[in-house]
């Protein structure tokens, strides 16, 4: 099977979450956690799970294609687990050999392509008018191609952030702060990975919206409005509620991170003169906000982040107008955009 097609079939959000789990495992093992065997058991099971089969059904690929993809993904995941285990723990070599034997058996198997109930339901819709549930969004190209994917993306971001925060709180409550401090970087890693995955949603939204007759200026205006809601609420809560300054700083950090991610997705040969300076300024503001948090200074970093986001909103129509939405640009280099033909 074509390596390019194999990469496009990789479930990026699933792998992003898997990498966060691997980071948690490495941190737990390196701090001497008593739960290391539980970590290993959970991560070992995750690393041996196969990719979803629905894309292979949709594209009409064969059982051989699916198993090739399955073996590559499982082998990479298992290799990561073994490397982390060897570098961070003194686990007896017999356990590692036993895991590799199990992984080898899983790799040798040749199962059929799995199929979910959702894809089977799609077969039943083939003879209908094609109309499906429009959800709670307007039945317009703005509602379905801009608002719906971006709002759902933010629902995913908020869910992951809440889950990571809950896990960190549980770790802090059950164990001493010194042990829990080894996990302080996990929310940062999770946020960056999830936002990079979210970039694919933004790029796809622009491409599909323009393909159906929408204007790039309208997309830019809606995108900056939608993506300012959650960070804006965090900033407001941090200002209104006494002692919640960190929440305001978190909202500001999300704003400039989002500005960098949007600009990254719009960076192509024809637009880099606008997007690269915006990315550089957003990165500098992110560092400034982080330094402000470390020093307990919030007002100026938050105001700077808000100002940077407003300037980015004014420049986004120009970035969207200059970018080649079918090239992929830097997003393609990260494997987050389809390749034009």
UniProtKB/TrEMBL annotation:
Keywords: Membrane, Transmembrane, Transmembrane helix. Signal peptide: none annotated. The chain crosses the membrane at residues 15-31, 37-59, 71-87, 154-175, 181-198, 219-240, 246-266, 273-291, 297-316. The keyword Membrane applies. This is ATP synthase F0, A subunit. It comes from the Bacteria.
